[in-house]
Amino acid sequence: MEKETTVNEKNYYSRLDTFIRKNYPEIKLGAIYSLIRKGFVKVNEKRVKKNNYILEIGDNVKIILAENKLEEISRPAQPSLKARPVSFDIIYEDKNLLVINKPAKVSVHPGSKEEMATIIEGVMHYSRGEFEPHLVHRLDKLTSGVMVVAKNKQTARELTQLIKSRETKKYYLTLLVGNLNKKSGELVSTVYGKTAQLKYQLKKKFDLFGDIYSLVEIELYTGRKHQIRVQFADLGFPIAGDDNHGDKKRNKLLRKNYG
Fold first, then answer.
1. Choosing a second label site near 132 at 20 to 30 A (CA), which of 123, 167, 252, 257?
2. pTM for the full model?
3. d(CA 109, CA 122)
4. Is the Cα torsion angle 101, 166, 50, 192 positive or negative in sign?
5. What mean pLDDT value characterizes the chain?
6. 226 CB contacts (<8 Å, ≥6 apart)?
7. What is the pLDDT of residue 70?
């Protein structure tokens, strides 16, 4: 069995592995690397074994798949997307970009157990079919903040490259439980087996119900899953409201009084 695609302006990604990943989302990432390494990917009828092979517009990419291996290399079926209304504020919009303020408690993308409408579905509803939204970064479900949505593949590619090359900066405001003594600092540690790095600056302190809370501004250098939560919890200053790494009783009291 073969899958064949011609590279054009709409589906173009420069690296071979990225092109396959973006145009064949049903193939597992590990399987993509394996297929390339073992010579099951051809560009213009020539076998290519380098993940970072650079493609050009007009190239023909062919993937050779064994019938008995399809189940092994295929991703499980993803939850279907459907346009559904979601409330969010629009910060900026032009023909290529939509910048929104993501509310807390709303997932960015559907998961296997997600029943509520998500951000991507909300943007689909907002677009009314006039553009195809592409998410170029994510925020945790419980996190509110600015999200940039590309309206076309070209803009998505450019934004993704800017993020990868760290030409963009990510800032977060976070309320920590505890009396943070240092006015600023840097945290470098391992989160789920990967190096995680951030810098923080103390902005203000609050006395709530006899406990001290510290408001900090964080500049994130790496985007590990739940990085901020894990790193500050390890330091002894869990994020207020985070039941997984903090004090559930204290969080319950906060929610009762502040929502």
1. 167
2. 0.68
3. 10
4. negative
5. 88
6. 140, 191
7. 54
